[in-house]
Amino acid sequence: MTRTDTPLPRVNADFLVRPRLLDMLDEWSPISLILAPSGAGKAVLAVQWSVHARAAGHDVIWLDGEVDDPADVVAALVRYAGVPAGVDDAATLRRLRRDLQARERRLALVVNNAEPIVSAIGDELVEIVRDCREVHLVLCLRRRLDPVAKALLETETRVVGLGDLQFTVEEVRALAQQFDLDLPEDEADAIRASVGGWAALVRTGLESLPDLEQQRVTAWSPRHVAWFVGANIEPALPPTALAALVRTALVEQPTYGAVLAATGPLDDVARAALEDIGILDPLVSEGEPLVRLPPVLRDFFGSRYDERVLGPAAAVHQQVARYWLGERDPQRALHQAVSGRCWALAVEVVEDHWWEIADADLREVPASEVRGHPSAEIGRQAALPDDATPLSPAARLAETELRSAAMDELVDRAGDPEVLALLTLLLVRDRRRGEHESALDLANRVEAVLGSPGVADGSPPVRRAALEAGRARLMSGEFGAASRVLLIADEAAEERVLSAAASGDRDATRQWLHRHDPVGVAGRIALAFDALHVLDRPRTRDALDRLWAGGVVNDDLWPFVAWLEAEHALLWSGRSRLRAELAALREAALRRPETPWLQGLLDAAEVDLCISLGRTAVADRLLAEADPGSVPALLARARLERVAGKPDQALEVLDAVAAAGMPTTALEIEALVLRAWCLDGSAAGAEDALARALYAARRDRMVLPFAHVPTSLLERHRRAVSGLGQVMVLLREAGVRAPYDLVDELPAISPRELAVLEALARGLSLEQVGRELFVSRNTVKTQVASLYRKLQVRDRTEAVRKASRIGLLD
Fold first, then answer.
1. Mean pLDDT of the chain
2. Nearest-CA neighbor of 58 among 22, 35, 28?
3. Confidence (pTM)
4. In order of start, what are the domains of the chain with their CATH numbers?
């Protein structure tokens, strides 16, 4: 019987023992494959596990396909079983199947570099381990072979692959500690990423260096890894494999298709060599392999590119970029073209595929390279709205002609696809720059071209143009016009349902949501609108949370979300917190200029929060700075006047808004409910306004506006107005609270009185206030008395407290 305790191959004691891998092999599957390329740590793991298995009392036979042939494997098993050999290896292996079945001790046959042995007698070895319960086969392979594929199908097989053998961050740190090198987690992660976790390269990078005191110290050095690759891997590569690998290093996103675009067809020698070192990972016997090229290897082989031997590197970049265009991935094509400084190709990608690459950083394409290409120049400005690079004369002329042309002239030119494309790019650019009047003018021009009989409906340029024109209308509060043009874009366009939801058309909103699943920002905002209109608190909160988590603050439509969030806070909770967050968001430098409509929504949201918090002075100040033509801001002004006890002034504002025309059903209902509150002293007037509001609300089953007035108002007119009782039930079930309380009339504080108030809040005496403001003590006394009268307080403490509450003092 052969001894199974013969010495195993030696490995350096400083190789890291990884218990997680030993545990995988300890599960003793009939066949265990350690399947990975050279340098992945297969042999080290096999030796470490063999030592571990012997220490646990099991038998281990170690063989290596580089020095042992199939006959040596058969002889080793014959000696272990203690039986005579047969007439040939095949007969001997058949006998061994019977003799090894009776063994009670576990035997592990571990074969390193197992390819030649498996190719010769792999089927017979599979048969033995399948029939002999205590015999286990552990194979170290660089690539999967047919007998191994058969074993995977017929026998329980455990595979330890490259993904398992790659070092984790914790293992990189543990290995470094064995060399007295204490690595922080981020440095260990950088090391792991730079070599793709390959065990041999991680360890190779641990370089011993002398420090200033001539003591040996350890550091991790990418330079040392590069030296190792140059000394050990590069010389072993056949010429065709080396040429392919150097070209592969130029590929920005190396997939197998992109690699072949760079290298051309791989011969069998090159493919086998690249599989052996792990650049190509076939994973299965057939099919497209994965490409694994860690940054250190990519940098090393990329530096070996010799144009005298391999031709211009730009040609490789162009071949790969053209491949990505063929795969309909212009983003990757642009990235590859930029990497190779293939500017003509990069400009071509920008011109032909702007809409697919609009989110790419076009700063990578220098403005000088797109100069003279109008669509590329304007597309670059649209993608980079903060870029001040002026247009070339050619691009400026093209823009001027499109902006100054009469509408009928544009319609006559509608058959030219460049007209619609440039108009749409200009619209996007101006909208992103905050030039909203210009954007709306361009939207008019786009819609004129879209209405021409020479435009083919349903084509991608037409849908894009309609979508951008509709978005411009939507952001300007022109919801009816937005819906009409968005219908050309696509019946499923999410901006279309947002237009319906924001205007209060819940029937259209629900129909769209029933047919489509919202995945974009516009659809999710529409979902939140629909939930809020019927006071569905959980659904509203969930929709808003998803929007914030998805980064909506970077989208043009974010003011809609801010307004919805304010409504949620007014009805349920979080008013003070949201007011502070909203103010911070509006002051953030990253904010683009908003359209007047969206700015009005933001103004109304912050003002309503201030009114609800009793900070009426702040609300008044904000409204003084708001657009006087904004309907949401005007309704907020009317609400402030009513809360401050001035219903007549509130009615004047509401009359002016009604005369100008309400842009949406939702705002119309809001204005009618607010009018009822202002007319509360006149039962007939209040009941008429409530009845009209209910009539409009019933059509869309909208409850939200009725939550903005005191419950007492609704209770007083419940019997006289049909349907009001049902609304009150819905308000109670939703758990909302009336967000606005009546306050004293807003005090008309002069600037000088405000300065005195601020000085009093700082604790200054009358004499100190006079000296600070350069007035006499008696003047200060007069102003203080006026302050107390206007604030309806008796002393300094009450004055400061009330001024702080209503927002006169921040």
1. 87
2. 28
3. 0.73
4. 19-165 (3.40.50.300), 169-231 (no CATH), 529-734 (1.25.40.10), 751-806 (1.10.10.10)
